[in-house]
Specification:
7-stranded parallel β-sheet, alpha/beta
Length: 335
């Protein structure tokens, strides 16, 4: 099968493309290689994919409408796994237009390509951030997500809405995946695990927000990829019993579905930091700080829908997953 993987030089995109290639599929990866974080890390991820004969890479920005239209016309993909986005909650406070370009115009470019070129299934990245002010735990895909607390979250909710429109109007099967705090080897430098590991090894303080009174449903990258690929094999079908007055946001009378992909067991931030300290072998010097704008206190994924459709439940425990990352970090940066 021929896949388009957007964000192929990114953390999740790289791992997803690698797994597809190992399974023998043809993968075309695109990425704009922006400098939101160190470009060399992105290039090194791509270097890991280059030995696969079935892989090709095209440097392309999602907001390049003509370039994206030409890509779909010339390549004729069977499926699209759309993982490219402008990431980060806090960065959206400083550079909001980057999110409009990548996450809104870019997502629309993908949907237009799928519409005009008979793509069989679009799987795209949403985010646990869409739950915003929701305090009901665990987060369920039938919950209201109408009160985001960051522009990043608002763009991800918009992606779900626009996808539903295209599923309804044009019959495009779309599956949105709400990722919960993904971590692991080749991870993003702006994420807590990467930042904390780097700071501890360099003898610097780590910033601990909300005085450590936070919890996240940390999900290991291999579990995320397994979930992505299993969902890709299950294009959603219209739910004939769905009605607006009693139907939730997770499915529809259109071929549309939204899933949580999380570990299903939130971990306290201080426990997570302890796992890093154990893996590194150094106690962190902590700088306790107040809650940051756009952050939420806790995330917790209800993954029953994912398990029902894919027969898969994430496996990796935090202590093992953190150690695997730290081992990769030491090897990659030679520390």
């Amino acid at each position: 099968m021929k896949y388009l993987v957007t964000g192929a030089a990114g953390f999740i995109g790289f791992h997803t493309a690698q797994k597809l290639l190992q399974q023998g599929h043809q993968v075309v990866g695109i990425d704009n290689l922006n400098d939101y974080y160190e470009v060399q890390l992105k290039l090194d991820r791509l270097a890991e994919l280059e030995p696969f004969e079935q892989f090709s890479f095209i440097k392309l920005d999602l907001a390049d409408r003509d370039g994206m239209a030409d890509l779909f016309k010339t390549q004729q993909f069977d499926q699209v796994i759309h993982l490219a986005a402008q990431a980060g909650v806090r960065y959206s406070l400083d550079n909001p237009f980057a999110y409009a370009d990548a996450n809104l115009i870019g997502h629309l470019s993908i949907l237009e390509g799928c519409r005009h070129h008979n793509v069989k299934h679009l799987v795209y990245a949403s985010s646990s951030s869409v739950y915003g002010l929701n305090e009901k735990m665990p987060f369920d895909t039938s919950d209201s997500v109408d009160h985001p607390v960051s522009l990043y979250a608002a763009t991800k909710k918009a992606n779900e809405l626009i996808s539903h429109t295209y599923s309804h109007l044009y019959g495009i099967p779309t599956s949105g995946l709400r990722f919960f705090t993904v971590y692991g080897p080749w991870g993003r430098p702006d994420m807590a695990l990467f930042k904390f590991t780097k700071a501890i090894l360099e003898g610097n303080k780590i910033d601990v927000y909300n005085n450590g009174n936070m919890a996240r449903d940390f999900t290991y990258i291999d579990d995320i990829v397994e979930g992505i690929l299993r969902v890709a094999q299950k294009p959603p079908q219209p739910n004939p019993d769905w009605k607006p007055e009693n139907g939730g946001a997770k499915d529809s009378s259109a071929p549309y579905h939204v899933y949580n992909i999380g570990n299903g067991s939130p971990v306290e931030l201080m426990e997570f930091i302890k796992a890093i300290e154990n893996a590194v072998g150094i106690e962190a010097d902590k700088n306790f700080m107040p809650m940051q704008p756009g952050d939420v206190h806790k995330t917790w994924a209800d993954t029953q829908d994912l398990e029902a459709v894919t027969a898969y439940k994430p496996q990796m425990d935090v202590s093992t997953g953190v150690k695997t990352f730290v081992d990769w970090y030491r090897d990659y940066y030679k520390v």
